[in-house]
Design goal:
single chain; 2 helices; two-stranded antiparallel ribbon; 191 residues; alpha+beta
Length: 191
């Protein structure tokens, strides 16, 4: 019987052990683009021809290339692009509302379709209105032309009436007597 007591004790001792954790060192983040952290230095190459040294007249330099550091390395203090550095958590930048997709549901789609229909109707009405306005302007121009021609005709009619009145007045006046002395004897039959 004693053997039966040892078997459960064996199982209990097996469950009471703590597992050992194996700690592995974390790999450093791979920096594929160092510009996200630090700007590189800027080197310029200058091709220099043969010249005499300005400090010593007895020294002459042959043609060679001179490398000059134009800008030293410095830290990039601009906020990084999301996901550019794995060691620093990416801070999401606020999205511009103009570039974010519009929410799509039935109410929004119905409103968008209603706005499109209203826009088409307004554009059609604007075209009709502009064509009607062009017709009204043409009729107005024609009326102005007719008015100007009517004024010219009225002036011409008034001038003609004055001439006609002058001619009628001249005709109703008695004609001057034609008693011209002549050598002919007066005719008894003539009035």
């Amino acid at each position: 019987m004693k053997t039966f007591y040892f078997i459960p004790l064996l199982f209990l001792t097996a469950c009471s052990t703590t597992p050992k954790l194996a700690l592995r060192p974390q790999q450093p983040p791979t920096a594929t683009d160092n510009r996200a952290v630090r700007y590189p230095e800027v080197l310029r190459a200058y091709h220099i021809g043969r010249y005499a040294d300005p400090n010593d007249d007895l020294v002459m330099h042959e043609q060679h290339v001179l490398y000059r550091v134009e800008d030293n390395t410095r830290w990039n203090l601009h906020p990084g692009r999301p996901g550019c550095d794995a060691a620093v958590p990416a801070v999401p930048s606020p999205r511009d509302a103009a570039f974010s997709p519009t929410p799509v549901n039935d109410a929004v789609l119905a409103e968008v379709n209603a706005q499109r229909l209203a826009t088409v109707q307004i554009v059609t009405q604007a075209r009709t209105l502009s064509s009607d306005l062009a017709q009204v302007q043409a009729a107005l121009q024609q009326a102005r032309t007719n008015l100007a021609e009517g004024a010219v005709l009225r002036v011409a009619v008034i001038q003609m009436k004055k001439r006609l009145d002058a001619l009628e007045a001249a005709q109703t006046q008695s004609p001057p007597s034609t008693n011209f002395p002549t050598n002919e004897p007066p005719d008894s039959l003539s009035p």
